[in-house]
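Fold tokens
===========
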Amino acid sequence: MALRPLVSGQNLPTFFRCLKLSFQAKEKTLPPQKILQTSISRRIGSIAAVASILLAREAILRPEIAFGADLRIQASEQTIEEAESEIRGHAQSLLDIKALLESESWREVQKALRWSSSNLKHDFYTIIQSRPGSERPYLRKLYSDLFNNVTRLDYAARDKDASLVRQCYGNIVVALYDILGRT
């Protein structure tokens, strides 16, 4: 059972002429049952590939596997009062990694740093959003300085670079005191 065009080849646009020619070439080389079987097996293969990608994504991004970063998008349900009351505690937990830095237990430093900085980041972002527009650029600069140093400290701990770790920790202390003085 061959498909026959209703319109002659001369009146078709170029794209459809190419499609018609490629289909005719397949028609001549493969019997109709094989053409149907080929397209069905391609569909099944495509569906299987997409399904395995989705399942692999779920397996890779599980919280216990990707413990470095929290990849979930969260709507801020935190009030300004909660953020202001919790920011000092989270800042203190970020400063408390000094004991881990002195003992040079780098893996524990990274874990504690990531946990405390993510909580602090959430609190500080809520506070920035509550401030008037004229104060926000300076607070965003402080936010950027603080968390760039946190990232640098994380990389320095991974590389076990003690001098860079101490330098980044000092920058974090200065930035935190500046931030806490403003809030």
